[in-house]
Amino acid sequence: VNLILIESNELRASGGVRLSDARATHLVNVLRVTKGTTVRVGMLDGPCGAGVVRAIGDGTVDLECQFETRLPERPRVDLLLALPRPKVLRRLWAQLAALGQIILTNAERVERNYFDTHILAPACYRPLLIEGLQQARDTRLPPVSVHRQFRILVEDDLAGLFPSGRRLLADPAADRQPAVVMEQQAAERTLLAVGPEGGWNDFEVGLLEAHGFQAVGIGRRTLRTDTACIALLAVVHQGMRARQ
Amino acid sequence: VNLILIESNELRASGGVRLSDARATHLVNVLRVTKGTTVRVGMLDGPCGAGVVRAIGDGTVDLECQFETRLPERPRVDLLLALPRPKVLRRLWAQLAALGQIILTNAERVERNYFDTHILAPACYRPLLIEGLQQARDTRLPPVSVHRQFRILVEDDLAGLFPSGRRLLADPAADRQPAVVMEQQAAERTLLAVGPEGGWNDFEVGLLEAHGFQAVGIGRRTLRTDTACIALLAVVHQGMRARQ
Question: How many CB pairs under 8 A join A and B?
């Protein structure tokens, strides 16, 4: 954990907060804070700042926080992901925390019962996203939307979810590298679509391409969904920085 | 699994092999092969090929294999990794299977007891690497070496392990992107050094730089070791392909 995230309703008007959960344990047992130690804090969906340890009690830590006036920039990469196996998605949530938004969709090669899992309940994934934000030193919780009808998502909903920007479609068979497309097409934001482990079917690829998605690849290897997401997002983020 | 790996001592002179372990179960229960089905096979550290299902028994599958004459290319990226927590390393092995070699090292911020773990025993990691190879459709098992003395590794052993090529040092504080260094310095092979979660210390960075490692970064975020490896290796592989 590289940042202690605090929810706005936890914060007293004075800037004080009493932590009594895993964050307190982490401060005491891992970061080994003592009275007077300053730690990096962030307000969930708000600014970063510094917290000074004012008191350590039995399982509690009192912090006095000062926040920056500026909000961190909104992440500029969004992900459209065919719903992976629950076990994979559970591992993946924390890794997706630093994205602009997460759009989960059905596809032919997504098993129907994946949608019944509790891992799609905000009560389940929100703590995992927050864990990821604390690791990544980010404060913005990415919006998550779940779409059971791929066609309606792409034809009707996507224009609202991702009104403008570059749309990329990860395809192991594509020879074009993300960097090449990103150099050719300037854009503030990028939406990356990653298919199921068995791949999108032809209809799905066609529909995505008809809606502006350009196929890009990072090599012919078939990757596990979690590896593919991490690898592709690293390459896309790299492409975003190269353009700055 | 995208490739069934067969060890050379399993193969009869005729090209026949009887599988009776997880590979047989996978062929029957996941790939749902029947008599006559052709599946991709590979010989460990050898060529890829095709296997035709000749018989399915009680927990066994008989394949008749034909192999290509050409060996797959040796992967051109090697990893020098400060030994991560056993739990992280266990998850990571399969992800590292498609590398040229894996060099594990001590560092100041590596806990001593990480070296006592059975996850460093070939009997433990070899099946995990093979699992990764089967996923990645590769056949070459990367050599693994474990070094308890960082300085001796860098000063004495590294010249033999990685005689020539580009040496990169992953550093969250570095502004230079891997692609920039890779464009400037042509090389057939790349060795990427990834530090412990707490980072290399100053002596270690100095020693690496004195031995030709150039610091590169993919953003200021502090990443978990497994995420950092996957993300960095994706960016480096991308850089290798851009030069082809």
Answer: 71
